[in-house]
Each structure stands twice: as C-alpha cells, then as structure tokens.
C-alpha cells in the first residue's frame, strides 16, 4: 500500500470487536514511513456504522466535528496518537493531547485504530495530567477490552507517563504553529462507507 499525498482524504476508522464503530474522513498533511499526520477539518461529518454497541458520539448526537479541527501525529507501532488542539477566535495553540489507541493499520481508504479511553493532556502552560481513568475502568468492566488488552493499555499509559515526566517527548513542538490549507473543504464520507 502506498502513501497518501498531502490533501488526500484518509478515512480514520475505529474498529471494535472486528466491526467498524466510527468513521471520520480526515485530510492528509504528511505521510511517510516514520510519520502519518492527518487533520480533521472543522464541520467534517462523522459516520457511525450499525454496531451492536453504538458509539458514544452517536448517542450524544455528535454528527460533525466542532472547533478549530484536530491535528493527529501517528508513528507506526505506537499505541497512541499525539493530537493538537487550538482554541478561541485567534486560534491560539492550547496543547498536546495524547490519545491512547490501537496502533494504526493502513487500509485502502485510510487507516484503522480503536480509542483506548485513557488519555494525557499536556497544556502549553502547566503540567501534564492523565484523563479518563474512570471511563477506561468502566469500559473494561463492560467488556470493551479483555484482560490482556486492558493490561497492554495500562502498560502504554505507564510508558507515556514516564516519557512526559522525563521530558523525552519525540514530536516537534513547532507543529503547534501549523495551520491548515484554507482551500481544504471538509471531506465527506464516500459512498458505501458503512460497508468498507
């Protein structure tokens, strides 16, 4: 499978228990052997295929991406992405959000992963902190992750916490100054997206 070109649409699918759970069309910023960077354009439509366990975004009525968009940095093999967020009318950089998730797997139309609930927030000003431990433990109790998966997720959380404590983060802070191409429209879900 080849790499995507800047501006291409790549579908980010979350796959739960072997079935697509949510689909977000993203714009490719950079794609190569060491890094995949995608951007969720503001007002992008979010897709929720039929699933025995409906996605929480669907239950909350989240049909489109809100805010300034989300930039996501993925390294092959990492069980997390580094997401960047901006805030306020002047699009001021807010910080890095480390989203624990299954290592991405390339597909013909994009890539697959699965959110692992545990996250870390690294604000521009202030100390990092872990998020959503209660949510993660609830998901484990509900069977969203089995015991081996839960143990692996906790190991990743420990590794991320150690990296943040040591200050040995790998990503370039200059990504905080990045801005999307104003000519990029919000991508749409392709025909047949529920079945792909």
TrEMBL record:
Residues 60-167 form the DUF402 domain. Pfam families: DUF402 (PF04167). The keyword Hydrolase applies. Keywords: Hydrolase. The keyword Ubl conjugation does not apply. This is DUF402 domain-containing protein. The lineage of its organism: Bacteria, Bacillati, Actinomycetota, Actinomycetes, Pseudonocardiales.
């Amino acid at each position: 499978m080849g790499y995507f070109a800047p501006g291409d649409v790549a579908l980010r699918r979350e796959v739960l228990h072997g079935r697509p759970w949510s689909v977000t069309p993203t714009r490719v910023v950079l794609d190569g052997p060491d890094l995949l960077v995608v951007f969720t354009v503001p007002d992008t439509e979010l897709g929720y295929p039929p699933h025995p366990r409906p996605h929480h975004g669907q239950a909350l009525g989240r049909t489109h991406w809100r805010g300034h968009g989300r930039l996501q940095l993925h390294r092959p093999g990492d069980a997390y992405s580094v997401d960047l967020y901006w805030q306020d009318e002047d699009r001021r950089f807010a910080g890095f959000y480390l989203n624990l998730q299954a290592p991405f797997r390339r597909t013909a139309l994009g890539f697959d992963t699965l959110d692992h609930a545990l996250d870390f927030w690294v604000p521009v000003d202030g100390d990092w902190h872990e998020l959503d431990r209660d949510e993660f433990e609830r998901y484990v109790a509900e069977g969203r992750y089995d015991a081996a998966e839960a143990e692996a997720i906790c190991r990743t959380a420990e590794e991320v916490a150690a990296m943040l404590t040591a200050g040995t983060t790998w990503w370039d802070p200059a990504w905080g100054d990045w801005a999307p191409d104003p000519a990029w429209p919000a991508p749409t879900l392709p025909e047949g997206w529920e079945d792909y």
